[in-house]
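Justification of computing resources. Each target in the renewal requires a structure prediction run like the one illustrated here; the chain below, 190 residues long, is used simply to show the kind of job we budget for.
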Amino acid sequence: MLQNRKSDPARLAGDIMQWLDRPLVLVGLMGVGKSTVGKRLATDLGISFVDADEEIETAAQMSIAEIFERFGEPYFRDGERRVISRLIDGVPRVIATGGGAFMSDQTRTLILEGAIAIWLDADIATLVERVSRRNTRPLLRNGDPGEVLTRLAAVRNPVYAQAQIHVRSKDGPHHRTVLTILEALARWHA
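Resulting structure tokens:
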């Protein structure tokens, strides 16, 4: 049955919305497309999109870079956990998280128990190209992005692998990655 619906994202989205009863949380390294793909996924499903980093900045009334600089990463991660806990309320929506959110045992447990975690994954070269477009990522300010991302991937990918769904994000139109997510959700639920 899924084979007949592969080329019809609207039908897949409609089928998914028949059973979706919790948020979809996108996890993965910075630059993988959690926010851009997440917005498109939410639109296709007809549900809201929330960027956890933007919610953190709104709550703190300062940028993530400022939070890191003034208070440090542990303080930021605690606030991140509180915001994600608030967002995982049983309402179907798409939530994009920061790259390190899933590394916290408490935050990961919240996501795995109250949502469907989708690991967006991409090769390092693609990530480097994407993150070079903006200078807003605190973890990349003091090093070569390729080296930093390679180190982060070695540590984080085994943890991201705990997500219920794993999807490769490739160069090209975002609708391809969204379609891959919709197909993965349909298979996961089948």
